[in-house]
Amino acid sequence: METLIKQDVTAVFDIGKTNKKFFLFDSNFSVVHKEYIRLEETVDQDGFPTENLEALEKWIRSVFEKCLESNKYVIRGLNFSTYGASLVHLDKNGKPLTPLYNYLKPIPKDIIDKFENTHGDVSVETCAAQSGMLNSGMQLYWLKYTQPTVFGKIKYTLHLPQYLSYLFTQVPVSEYTSIGCHTALWDFENQNYHSWVIKERIDKLLPPIVTAETAISIRFKENLIKVGVGVHDSSSALIPYIKSSKKPFILVSTGTWSVSMNPYLMSVLTEEDIKNQTVNYMKTNGDFVKSAKFLLGKEYKFQIGQLSHFFNVPETFHKTVKFNAEIFQKLSADQTNCFSWKYLLDSNMPKKTTIKHVGFTEAYHQLMIELVKLQVENIKVAKGHSPKIKQLFVDGGFSDNDVFINLLTHHFKDLKVKSTKSSFGSALGACIVLTGQTLGPKFLSKKYALKKHIPFNLN
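-> structure tokens emitted (459 positions)
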């Protein structure tokens, strides 16, 4: 009887706010298996929607155990990329004490006032504007003063990527890319936790810091598997580009959030930067990444729902719309904004949305024109004064949006705009950082099927 030779693979769970994904990569970083799921949210004790942590854990364990039993693959490595600004608080027995609080949950004004009266404005030092729960350090502060009994039971607080790793290793750690994710925990100039964190003794709850290259070998049945400590998803998406591109670039990682990342500006932010919603992320080794973000995908999803209802078309219809230069030229003659945003701050938006367009396609172009204007400003903020940057990579959910890409290329004629149809950038980064392999300069074009875009001609 012929013996079946199993293929060695690296497994990665890529956990987004909406989609939960699982990938198996071979030794050449090709995807040989993938699974997707969407989980229904639950609510916290205040009725605010949040991740169903129990359901997420159940799905992760189920998928992993199924792959362990596979007659096709042998899992040699396991890693995680997840959204940031989310903390899991563990008791002395290693069990979660609270729901996984949603970073969009509002913090009462009296808590914010208490913090600022005690510690002042830490935005510049921590390179993150005051953003409530989106500063995950504030989640701990809020918990300390609103639920002191619960806070007193915390043994460790883990960022979400490190918690998923902990499920398999039982080793609590902290890691740079999660700490650097607009947490308001880190003093970027002094390269340590900020003084407010130490004064509040919050640092006592945060496990030792390790780099994302750290791995812990664990035996599962007959398999010895190298388990990574997890990576923040936006930072993870940056890894393949940093490791394979010789020329400086900006990466626009799109999804629920659009994050424009510049890994070539190593500087603490200014007050002006903070006003422009700029943050510093961190690379896997703790170096800075100047970034600007906004809720592009979340706003887009809401507005598409509104437009689809208004024009009585299926909610998937927007996926069929291709860029039309004539429509663009017509709409460009009138610079008036038509859309009132639900999730975005924009001084130019009207108080109420006004649809005055002929059909869905024209209204859709108007929507994208207005969203791309915000995206352009976002990129310019991240770029700063970086004359060496000549490339703009677009990754994630909007990379195959024909209208979005054409408008972006039109605005950045001085840059080489390249996009990829890859939907696994964050997972791939987590895989690469775990394996530690060196990438060649042709890696991006091979694995990402990079497409170079030429500005459209209006003549």
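The CA atoms of residues 97 and 150 lie 7 Å apart.
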